[in-house]
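Fold Annotation — chain and its backbone

Encoding — discrete vocabulary of local shapes
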Amino acid sequence: MPYTPLGKQTMASHKAGFGVNIAPIAEINDPFDTCDPIGFPRIVLFNLRAVQIVQTPKQVLMLYQNTRTFRTIWTDGREIPKEITEPRWFGYSVGKWTDPTTLVVTTTGFDESTWIDNVGRPHSDQLVVEETYHRADEFNIDLTVKITDPVMYTQPWYPLKNFRLGMNSPDFDIREMICSVSQQALFNQLLKATTDPAPDKK
């Protein structure tokens, strides 16, 4: 990865449960494990489950199964605000149709506490994510994601290129997939009970 020195240092501080930064479970500091919002672009780079795309005259709405959340992509001709005073978990998104089958989305204005992906790649408040959704045929869309963050990376990079999204049937029902604090606490309690050493027998 084309990390800057700060990017490399920040990446090393992120202790993930998967990948190149995998850590013992007691050291994991993944914010999503404590039910902080998964954020964007991580929601499309990890566990990209079902997503429903709803188009209105002024917006494209992305309804995600993962954490049962949504994003608004404005397609009414507006520009990204020059100053975003309220950082967001999922950023501020503006989309433009470059041709009848291709939507290019630019997102910025991120809260810095989220991770880019499941292994903990970092970002700053200068992160810009560009998504390209291209309608390949009647039933498939290709998704490309470009990451630009001059604070953490020396050059742009692509976590996804022409990733194929297939259409579900019209009656497909998106299941719940929610990070529940109470369920997470119960899981941690059960995990602790199975990993603690047995008391010495006297």
